């Protein structure tokens, strides 16, 4: 019987992030899916299977914080890890106050990502 790997979804409008981060997640032992927008993720079947979402703060259309509010409104309690290239302590405080697991500033280290994933999924999930 094959081991079931936790699905981690990456939502980022930056193509290089959508290509590299899922590769890293796969190496770390996760199943990974990438989406170019929050709207694309919300319309996918991955929404019901995801165990964690890594989402960019600033994207065209629905932003990461807006996705967080939409997921809460719809009753989804997915752990969210925010990533951003812009240091904005107010945004960081707000997403963390609303339950985000972490807010990582790009470029972040593999160990910082792994720490956030362990928080999101618990040690057994990693």
Determine the structural class based on helices, strands and strand pairing. alpha/beta
Task: List SSEs in N-to-C order.
Answer: EHEHHEHEHEH
Q: Biggest β-sheet, characterized? A: 5 strands, parallel
Name the strands of the widest sheet in spatial order: 2-1-3-4-5
Q: What is the gyration radius calculated from CA atoms?
A: 13 Å
Count of helical regions = 6
Quote the distance from N terminus to C terminus: 19 Å
Shape: globular
What is the element layout, followed by pairings?
Blueprint: E1 7-11, H1 15-27, E2 31-35, H2 38-42, H3 46-49, E3 52-56, H4 64-73, E4 80-84, H5 89-97, E5 102-105, H6 110-121
Parallel strand pairs: 1-2, 1-3, 3-4, 4-5
Please give a structural write-up.
This protein is α/β, with parallel strands linked by helices and 126 residues long. The chain contains 6 helices and 5 strands; from the N terminus they run E-H-E-H-H-E-H-E-H-E-H. The chain has helices at 15-27, 38-42, 46-49, 64-73, 89-97, 110-121; strands at 7-11, 31-35, 52-56, 80-84, 102-105. Helix 1 links the parallel strand 1 and strand 2 (31-35). It has a 5-stranded parallel sheet with strand order 2-1-3-4-5, sandwiched between helices. The radius of gyration is 13 Å and the shape is globular.
Brief overview, please?
42% of the residues lie in helices and 19% in strands. With 126 residues, it is α/β, with parallel strands linked by helices.
List its salient traits.
6 helices, five-stranded parallel beta sheet, alpha/beta, 126 residues
